[in-house]
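Q: Predict the assembly, please.
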Amino acid sequence: MSQDIDQERRQFVSVAGLAAAATVVAPGAFLLDGSAEAGSRREPAVDKVRYGMFIDTTKCADGCTECVTACEKENGIDLLRMPEGADPEEWDRQRPRWMRTVKVKDRLTGRVSNLPMMCQHCEHPPCVDVCPTGASFRRADGIVMVDRHICIGCRYCMMACPYKARSFIHENVDQQLSIAPRGKGCVESCNFCVHRRDNGENTTACQDACSHGAIVFGDLNDSNSEVSKVLREKDNTQLRADLKLNTSVRYCGI
Amino acid sequence: MLTGALVLVLGANAAEHSNRSVVKGSKAYELDSCVEPTSVMRKLHPTFIKHQRDITVHHGIRGDKHSLSGCVDCHATKDAQGRYTPVNAPGQFCESCHEYAGVEIPCFTCHATTPTGRKGE
Amino acid sequence: MKKIHYREWGIESLRYWGLLAVLGVFLAIGGLATLYMEHEGHWVTGMNNQIVWGVPHVFAIFLIAAASGALNIAAFGSVFGKKVYRSLGRLSGLLAMALLVGGLLVLVLDLGQPGRLIVAMTTYNIKSIFSWNIYLYVGFLAIVAIYLFTMMERKANKYYPAAGLVAFVWRLVLTTGTGSIFGFLVARQGYGAAIMAPMFIIMSFAYGMAIYLLVLLFTFKLDDRPIGDGLLMRLKNLLGIFVAAVFYFVMIYHLSNLYGTENHEYEAFILRDGGIYTTLFWVGWVFLGMVLPMGILFHPGSGRSRGAIVVASILVILGGFTAMYVIVVGGQVFPMAIFPGKVIVESGFYDGVNGQVLYYAPSLPEFLLGLGGVAVALTATFVGVRVLKFLPESLADEVVDPHHG
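A: Predicted assembly structure:
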């Protein structure tokens, strides 16, 4: 099904491309590399798709941070520097993290699991409910993200998130990637590498980086997608399932 | 005609260094006009960018002709070492005009000012 | 009851300007602290990605709660027809507005993007209690202004009861909204309880009354205006009752939490093992903020002394700040149960490893911003009573007749 969509999209893009080329008045005025890129989204994201992720904690290796490192590089978090005069310990509590690794131990059985934590992309996200301006929103394809143009930096979403998935930018930022804008005074979090979604790529940075194959990403609404198949096959759970948020990130082995 | 219009807007000051406000060495310098006619861009570029930003953030449509990263991509120049100069650096395309007009550019408190964003690339 | 005459605050110029100068210093320092925090970003504060609301929010929420509480005195006069409180209504309305402005200012100046306040007013998420509050706060200012007008303008007097009723209902809704900011946070153990809203209302009664009493005694003392013992006894008894009601709600909140096993760890943290938070709870909030002032106010001897009433009011206010600190910060430092039944043994992002509480050390600029908000409220109040007729010339018992309702 997702292949069909991709097929359709590609056809549409090529038609749109031709049309665009035909309407260009002055030769050479068509100058944006990005606009001509194949697979770049031309139609609004739709709710036919629901992006989601499966994380197999039984494959997740103790002490491994491949996914976190890749996430920070992909989204330009590694470009942030500690402000001059800041206390390194305090700064560590203040710097943003979209993804983190956590090791949990069952209180009774002592069973240990390693897993990465990030925004769980809830169907009913508390951060969206509480946001006064609507900056925190859920895109049609299920990605929960922040429109930082209208975020006022009140941090109420951070109070509401049951997964502590969000970070506030505590300092001036002088280096950003064009795909990941970032500035002082706004809140941000994992967005399933949304720029990749919009450029027709199929993976997330964390998934690509995981050498243990613990992360599977894809369209939950497409029953033939790899993520749907593995979710059908393997026992899995939501974090804080009691809150009934219907998260798009599911874990196996915890 | 283009030159005349630019001199009108930017005044004699700009005309001293260059007869165009588009900075030499950028992709834009080689082109006859922007994604819209110059007179339209001059007046409406904030509207275009603002409209596009909502489409991009909420609907995921990137790389349209009114995208901010498109502006940066096309108007950035490289220095002698081949490194990009930020578009909001003094004398660069965005800054030269905005400084003259005395208007802040809020875009670049969050958005990358060079095509890559990573310094030295 | 005789006709009440109102007059501007008539203290000597030197004293008045000296008072404003002192407050001005706090305003200036608060302003500088704000500029510093806004310029550098929040890294210069003690707030971080775990404790996202800190001392500014403690001040802001306290002031906002106290604002709605300060309006009660006026409401007793108009809504409940207690004539004796009518003469107190003007100051009550003024104080309510001043405290709200002070609190809101602190809240807004702590935003990551204070310049985007206009965004908060124009784009609106109807599901968010925060955006409701924006309208509740602005509406409160407008309604109280109208209410004051109906008190002070003879021609508008006939609308006074109606305006009073609207203002009183509005203030109840407003504090419900403030309490619900926490009540709606289901993810955090310390919040997410419906009792938060009524508890905030009763807290607002106590803190608003304490501030009102202090301002009343201060302004009257400086201007040599009389306050009758009979009236003062009524006010201090009310304060005592409000504090007792807060005590009751705090007890119910923790007792009902103790009944549910899932809350045991949070309760153990606040009540027993929480170090500074436990100390603040028992010593600051419960003993100094409730038990001691109740003792002072209801003691047959000390309850009659003005000095003791002042001390009790100050204690209630300090207890109020402590209460807000325990609620706002204590609720956040206690790690969330992301994995019920499991212990987090390692984390890359401060998830409360082995149940350890999270870290927050308030910074000086945060306090200065908060104090600046208090200074704004006081300045507005003192300027108000100076230029307009807010204060009665006399509140002597033979004038207001406190024994006849």
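The two ends of chain C are 10 Å apart (CA to CA). The longest strand of chain C covers residues 342-347.
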